[in-house]
Amino acid sequence: MACGFGILRVEVVEISLKGEGYHFRTITPNSHARILDRLSTRLAPEDPTERLRWFFGWNVGVGSSIAKNWLKSSTLKKMQSSSNKWKVERRSFKATQTFKSKIRFSTHGDLIWAHSSFPTTESDCIFFGPDTYRYFYFLQKVVDVYLSSCPSEEFKLIDIGAGSGAGGLFIAEEIRKKHATARTHVTLTDINPRALQFCRANAAVNYRGEKIDYQISDILKQVNESFDLILSNPPYMVDLEDSKSAASKEGQARMYRNGGGTLGIDLSLRIISEGAEKLKSGGLIALYTGIPILEMGIDPFLQAFTPLVSKGDMEVLKYEEIDPDVWGEELETRSYSNVERIAVMGLVLRKK
Ligand SMILES: C[S@@+](CC[C@H](N)C(=O)[O-])C[C@H]1O[C@@H](n2cnc3c(N)ncnc32)[C@H](O)[C@@H]1O
Hints:
Rossmann fold; 2 domains; 10 helices; 352 residues; seven-stranded mixed beta sheet; alpha/beta; binds S-adenosylmethionine
């Protein structure tokens, strides 16, 4: 899995997407595929920023003469000489379109994140998508409502399943904006080693806080410290081979999707039970997750987490529905045959 991420780190800075007007919002895979189809019938754009959006946002494959025109020669040289993560993908788009970025860049406000290119079919892809944006909105609310008096001494937060590092880096910036004297210490964890390489690269361009740690961990099993804030947007789908739209290229569950158990909620429950043991008194868990709502409107997550909250000496500050219906196409699959809808929920817990 060596991918030349030293190069990734340099590229995020060197490509100068930041500060050159580049902006890109990653949309759902189905919508992205539609836009790619549309762009394949269009003439290449004249505008330099739009060219960067085609290449690093939509991941359009281009021929070598276009690539020479669109990209800085230093960038192109690196792409040609680096590992397969940046290389030519001849079969990916059209035979003549030999350069296709294996990395996508998405933005939110002033921040920019590198993550896996489209389509994200490999089992160890680095996720970033509409869920990430909803996660940002949820975290923004957590800062506004529950962190109105953030202590000026070191404030320790951890993002579990950090992926590109999006949530942890975003909230650190929001805390910094709201509380000029706050000293954040951010820990970004993921079970996928590739994710931590992306976290490092993205922190290099986005993080202005005090201290940052990176740790491979299965939820919190390998973490020994305690925190003021534990946040997560964990996988929440059933990503089995029978899931029509979900089966990965390799027939393996994808780490960024597979929430575990028959309903996809097991990792979310582990975050609550393991999180309770790692929270300082008064500390918060902010969990953004998807829940299958069963027939008759039953919420199996609510039923399962309620005893964990009292066992962990915590209280529920908020449990709210953020979106009533996501990934509706999954309802056609066997795994979701008894599910009415998949809802996105935001849960905020406080340790007593
Ligand atoms: C839906 S993605 C979210 C990524 C990122 N937080 C975001 O919002 O864009 C879920 C992430 O959890 C990670 N993950 C999956 N299983 C995990 C586990 N058991 N422990 C820690 N992280 C895990 C995946 O590798 C993936 O990066």
